[in-house]
Specification:
This protein is α/β, with parallel strands linked by helices. The protein is built from 6 helices and 14 strands. Helix content is 23%, strand content 31%. The longest helix is centred in the last third of the chain and has 12 residues.
């Protein structure tokens, strides 16, 4: 498996590239912007983009959707509860004094529990609401991309519309903390961590 990342967009969202080494098929998770850089990274790894997956619909995670999809013809996937947020990206960004391009509608709306096939890889979709109603995390082998659900030493904010603190804590405990301790968690902002480390040291979970 190929797993690479780069910070994108005005809030430096961690954008992830998942690639199958044999088939060279790839998925991009949370393109916040800087699409030319994303395309360059795909080319560096000799990958063909098949799908764009948003862990949730907030503007900073979807700002590159339109340009990336137009450049590649990739399919867009997001949880159905966050799909309405895609067309609100520009208005949401304006609330923070920033700008973002509205995203096209998804070709596939997820519910959680799906197993997405990407070449010889299987991506398991976990529904983890709390930061937003349609937040998801993506498990690939011993890695999990957690969006804004979980951070190293912290958790996602829950003061935005649709957020709920107890729902987020339940999602983390029921969906993420049951993964093996060695599972590497890749958040939407900041450094990677492990599930075991967060079990022991995350003040919101201990």
């Amino acid at each position: 498996m190929i797993l690479d990342s780069l910070p994108t967009g005005p809030l430096q969202v961690n954008c992830y590239i998942i690639g199958c080494e044999k088939t060279r098929k790839a998925a991009v998770v949370d393109p916040g912007g800087d699409v030319e850089e994303i395309l360059r990274l795909l080319k560096k790894h000799d990958l063909q983009l098949q799908m764009v997956i948003n862990t949730h619909g907030h503007f900073d995670h979807v700002g590159g959707n339109r340009q990336l999809i137009e450049a590649s013809g990739a399919e867009l996937l997001i949880h159905q509860a966050d799909a309405p947020l895609l067309r609100q990206a520009a208005a949401h960004a304006a609330n923070f004094g920033l700008s973002a391009e509205a995203s096209p509608a998804p070709q596939r709306e997820l519910l959680g529990g799906e197993r997405i096939v990407l070449g010889e890889l299987v991506i398991e979709v976990l529904h983890t609401p709390g930061h937003s109603p349609g937040g998801i995390c993506l498990v690939v082998a011993d890695q999990v991309i957690v969006g804004d659900t979980l951070f190293a030493g912290s958790i996602g904010r829950t003061d935005l519309p649709g957020g709920d603190h107890q729902t987020l804590i339940n999602s983390i405990r029921e969906q993420l903390l049951v993964l093996p301790d060695a599972t590497v968690a890749h958040p939407g902002h900041g450094p990677a961590t492990t599930i075991g480390r967060e079990k022991l040291y995350n003040p919101f979970l201990t």
